[in-house]
User: Fold these one by one.
Assistant:
Number 1:
Amino acid sequence: MPTSINTRKLSYNSAKLLRDSVRDAATNTSPVLYVTLGNSVPYNNEGSPDNLVDTINTEKAAFENIFAGKKVTGNDIELVIPRVNWTGNTKYRQYDDTIDVEDLVTANTTLNLKPMYVITSERNVYKCLSNSASANSNVQPTGDYTTSNGNIATADGYIWKYMYNVQPSNKFLNDSWIPAPSSTQALDYGVSSIGVLPGELTTIVMTANGTNYRQASNIRVDSFTSGQTTIRLSNTANALAIFSIPTLSNLANMAISGTGLATDTHITGVAIANGLITLSSATNAVGGNANNITILTRVYIEGDGVGAVASAVLSNTAITVSSANANVARISVTTIGTGYTRANAFIYGSGTNANARVIISPLFGHASNPAQELYANTSMIAVRVGELDSTEGGLISVDTSFRQIGLLQNPYKYSSNNRIESTNANTVISQTTDLNIVAGTSYTLNEYVYQGSSASTASAYGYLHAQTSNEVRLIKVLGTFVTGLPLFGATSGVSRTVTGVANPELEPYSGDMLYIENAVKTDRADGQAENIKLTISF
């Protein structure tokens, strides 16, 4: 076992720091990020993108491939979690403050367990608080924070906590990911503090089920009046038989209910000789004689919070004297308590050895910070290239393709020794070297073009990314092109004189390439926009 850990909160905070830093665009200390498009040159095998290795040369080559970039704004980045659709006849993990958080949010195929959260057909996101003692979920939860403070009990025994809702137009929602808001974004995602209760006690799990537990509702008692603290069993032998216990002392601390008894009354003592039962609360009305008293296994919660009430569910709720070895199957929390930082559950009944453990919510309550509680460690960046128009104001060619996308942080402007700042960063950048040329025959798209005596001894070269009648745009440029000299095409054999040179917007190799992906070719076209989505996990 390791003696130190990096908690999942470190990963969450790293992802959140990236998101928040981009959103803090009001200061020049915030990073400038560009999603980049690159590499219009075909792979050797177009159906199989080239593999990547994290080297300095890989980063340099990726920079050389860039022909355009779109700035990432605060609206283009969000924390996300893997998508888990609610599916019937499926077992979900329940929230547990003692379980490794990686297990809580990861499926286990061996145990057939899904993570502890789901998104439903209504695009509501819920956290599972109780899985009904590891039963299958067969009822899709519905309702929000206005329903029982967001604690949704379904007919299959599950308890779900409503976390938030995702609108269908949310650009961070797709087949693989769900956006995960922090508390500061509550209003954007249908969350309210109404549904957030600090220190919730919602779940008690069995650690040992015990044996020989019984409960009965056919226990007759003598008549009594209001205000009594004791009542008497009409037939002690009958009670002993029903519970199959050697002595009535086994009933001490069990719950008792019936006509004339106050709510949440329990037995504090039994006089064995005369069947006299002492009550925790005085009777509040006339009862007994023809009335039956119910005696149940009692769950007592001790802790520093208030309000939690629980009851025991036995493995057989209609127990007879012949039914041996009945146990406490599960504990049902009938009233959710609040303000708990610690708690213990004690089980009192006619049997022995049943034990349980209390599960307490995060300090500020379930749904106080959905992203943190669902252990989001991934930031998604989603930008739209071609939003202004297909060419983004003529900066990006439509008669081309791209095979590489990247994420570039803090580049410099061309011929500058200072990084671009958020206040002077263009929304769209062109990273091609653009040459004005005299009229003539067209070059071949993507071919190697150069100046010099030969292709192998070129003084400057690049690859033709796009062209018009009097201009060519180049990527993978090395060297300095000179006006008045011819530009040769290595494949086409075309030679046309250069009349002007326009440099790219960014200084070569400046900034940090945080993400590089070789992808299958995407062809751009007039009237087309591309939605680019990147996920960065910590």
Note: The first helix runs from residue 8 to 23.
Number 2:
Amino acid sequence: MGVKGEPKTPEEMDAILAERRANWKPKAPKYTKGLLKTLLSARRQPHEGCIHGVNCSAQTTESKLSGGFCRTAWISVTKNHETEEISMTAVATPDAARLVFAAVAGLILLLILIIKFKVHAMISILIGAVGIGLMAGMPLSDIIGSVNEGIGNTLKGIALLVGLGSMFGAILEESGGAQTLAVTMVRKFGDEKAAWALGITGLVVAMPVFFDAGLIILIPLAFSLAKRTKRSVLYYVIPLLAGLAVGHAFIPPTPGPVLVATMLGVDLGWVILVGIFCGIFAMIAAGPIWGSICGKKYMVEVPEHVAQQADIDESKLPKFGTIVGIIMIPLLLIIANSVAKVVPALAGIQPVLAFLGEPFMALLLATIAAMYLLGTRHGYTNAQLEKIMTKSLEPTGMILLVTACGGVLRYMLQNSGLGDVIGNAVANASLPLVLVAFIVAALVRISVGSATVAMTMAAGIISAMPGLSELSPLYLACVTAAIAGGSTVCSHFNDSGFWLVKSLVGMDEKTTLKTWTIMETLVGGVGFLVALIISFFA
């Protein structure tokens, strides 16, 4: 019988019901958070027993209640004409005030350990993360689980990349490839535009080579130019420093942006594209432009210990084209993989590009190419190459451990529920996530001094926020660039880079603050502004 009482055959009714099912759309849930959402999402039909339990953990009711993470709902259900009580555990939103207090106290503890007591960053971050879990009332088993989860999930994404990147950079450094880039670029640009050449060279070199290593390798060329042109050393050193800072902070495969990208779950191809775009503007503003101002305002002579050094012997250096080609291998493969995912015309070769463009595979190919073209073909034996590459892995242990502890911080914040609290606060404040990321990273950078720690903590806090997976890859790449920018600004007395630059260039503290510190702030600030602008179109 139909809706109006008219007779219908079973076949006609099946057709009507099929049409209704095809056109049916579910209503949006009335409750999107809290206990009511959990209760409603867990309900079942009468033939299924009406009610279905949701387990929070294997903890007792008392321990659940004490932590503030779970609540027990007692519901009366009529079954077979008998009323019985069924216990149901449901996830509830933890107390926001308690979580905020725990997070603030844990982060303050972390900063005090680093700044006041000079405790290593790895130990400090780990203590701070565990402290957050304890003060938030997390069950002890959940704290242990968050530690293991943070270490495992973080390292599996970056361990190979950091290791291969270190080997690649070591071969480039040892073979003279970095000097080749600098010398060739300066010769092409000429003495008058050598500052631009040094800025571009620093940017490219810092992607596979650590900042301090790149600076030590290339600064003799800046000294040589200053000696030849009778200009202030700052005229050439500042652009070089700006390029190195940009490449180190914004563009993979350098560890910082790789770490942030891994924790935020964003494709490295997008990070490279956004990083290059942000980095170019940052390098121009903080490099040639600011370097020219510093060179005119502060006359810094070439240090005496290098004034008598002989110029670089170009005949012993590798070819420029070879160096550029090797450096471009991982960048082009990773970008090609990202492009192939969104361009239908490349669907046929997308599996191949996905394989070759996987970050670790792209870096592996680049490292093998460097071993042969810069090593074997230039007279290095396999034993010598093995020694160079083994030595390059020595500093990676600290990087990986600090990074892993950053992952612990992320999962502790996430599993405690603080990510939801921060996410709601950001949403209510109507602040762009890009801006929040920059501010968090900048505050840590100013407090602690370490760019790595700033990136790690900021990425941990931001990645704990809900809904990141729903954001576009381009927007997440902008968030990554914003964290990189925040972790670069305001280098001062608590930053090892400050003292390295001061000693190498031969400046006093006041001049270093007026030149290097402002340069770092320009790098981070301009890079962030470009990322913010790009995010409006993401």
Note: The two ends are 54 Å apart (CA to CA).
Number 3:
Amino acid sequence: MPSPAQTIRHKLLNTFFSRHSIWFLCIFIALLITNFYFGYSPHYLQYFIPETLLNTIWVISIALSFLGLYDVLQNRHSILKNYPIMGHFRFLFEEFRPEIRQYFIESDQDALPFSRMQRSLVYQRAKNQNADKPFGSIVDVYQNDYRFLNHSLTPCVPAIPETFRISIGNEQCTQPYSASILNISAMSFGSLSANAIRALNLGAKMGNFYHDTGEGSISPYHLENGGDIVWELGSGYFGCRTIDGQFDPVRFAEQAKLPQVKMIEIKLSQGAKPGHGGILPKDKISEEIAQIRGVSREHDCISPSSHPAFSTPIEMMQFIQQLRELSNGKPVGFKLCIGQPWQFMSIVKAMLHTKIYPDFIVVDGSEGGTGAAPIELIDNMGTPLREGLLFVNNTLIGAGLRSKIKVGASGKIISAFDIASTMAIGADWVNSARGFMFAVGCIQAQSCHTNQCPVGVATQDKDRQKAIHVPTKAERVFNFHKNTMHGLSELIASAGLQHPADIRAHHLAQRINNREIKNYAQLHFWLKDGELLSCENKDDENFYFRMWNMASLEKF
């Protein structure tokens, strides 16, 4: 529920007329002075204002009126389309920012939640601009926890980025999918606007990478431009639910068999609010969203915190097998933010017991999140990506299943180094949500839950989302992916590697203190293949052995 201050802001500052007020004022002044010049004699205004000043105001108001018209008609900048004339102040301040940075509260490295450096990198790559930095790094390389890749004295020629793909689908899957190393993470229609979904999917089509639907189901906008789709199935079963919210196999099969749907992803939990389910504020539920999801507009759309279709690890494996059969053998996996470690191990034990293996697992870090969530959950619930990914990778290796199951990762992934460092600790590929939001035009206004997104990305306001010109923004989505893959190619080539799959833990190093640096192979504990399968009588002090022995097939 919006606060009184937010309500006042919406009523007074975020209406159509308030956003266009400066433009309308300029038009009014220009017409008023023009009327006095040509409609009256003598010129009464000159009795009160000197002629030179009056002429100056007249010329400026006419010029700004045409500028506002240009802003409304152009499709390059969303902020200018929604805030004609006023939006130029943002770009003006950006131009002056490096010179007067000391007068701004935020430094380049303050991650709130993404730093200026990170956002600028995405903007530059999305616009095909040079993202090189002059005069050396501004990062303190002697700070604790500073991370870097070890380069090789025999670097290789950078590989073609289009070859950075991974095949997803084990022997139980009849339609494996070749996925890009970088893809669009889960963001639902409803959380994002129709035009944002269109731009993301068209960009995915142009760059040959996939677009995760989020749990809000497959909308017409996901299908409009033909980009590859990963259908995320949340606990609300939107798009394949009965009237009472249960899973509907018939409706699922109808949509899962669409050629554009390449994989099915069961969402167990997400980084922003693990254990809480999904939330779509009622203010953002249009009639269209209500029909797509099959929900009411009278209340916030809340997905249950757990799945009605299964309640034990074994039932979950059976559900995975059911989805695989209903989709004619497409890859089926699940996404989760790691919580109680023995619960994930219970799922792995169920895989071994039933011999039903998911094709992939996506690990979502607690630093993730694009929409609304209670502050306590955002800040203090769930395992961060690095630790969660390391745990999942180790557990699958220890259970002897790593070769059967591919592992994806998501959580504040922006740059090529983010990708490389994530793959060094076990990921086969990565997904990015907010990175692609920046590419579409997001300015981190952090008003996603208010329906008042200033650039039309995270809103259902039809007037605001017109600011997103789909072809232009799709091109930026494509450029961001292309240039990031190019950056990754150059990065790993410096380490003597041809493909991201060759990145290992020893390639990534981290400063421990001002006297010590360790690579990740030294820094972390690594299980051997199949080591968990015979750990009943081994050292109880070992974290993995202890958690494995606590895990149960009968319950999470």
Note: The mean pLDDT is 88.
